[in-house]
Amino acid sequence: MTEKQNIFDPKKGIQEAKKSRSVAKKHTSRKTRGTSSKSKSIDRYNSWKLDLPKGEVIWGNNMERVDLIRKGLPFESVEAISSKANISIKQVLNVMDMAQTTYNKKKKDQDKLSGRDSELILVLAELLDFGLEVFNNEKDKFHSWLKRPNTSLGGASPESLFDSLTGIQEVKNSLNRIEYGNFA
User: Annotated region Disordered: where (predicted)?
Assistant: First the structure.
């Protein structure tokens, strides 16, 4: 056996990985709808979607999320996240620290959510999509898990932590533990 046969060539490995990624990208992309008039290609395995009454919002990476946060989401996204999380609109408004009358007025005026509230909605949408994936798209089991006190969350229910980005990250960490077999 010669020494050349045992040597790994990192340049060759990187080239092969890039080649396989570009082939995979061509086969797994789709057009976005509702995000802008320009058509973009988003990897369907790495994108999130929020269904709204007047279309949908789709983003595929953090920079697209930042763009959506800066533009602000429509107030209909509160209803969309309420439906996705199986919690009442009033609970979502409590998470956002917004009065019902403010919500009603701004929705009627077709205002946009603030940057903070838009970010909260988008991060929640990502978490809920991830949670459904972890629970094999069994909505009832996932929604039940969201409502029950959880030992790994200090006895709090996952949905009670939706009011902060740190709380949402802790829920995501708990879902990661479930996904990898460390039950939470």
Answer: 1-40
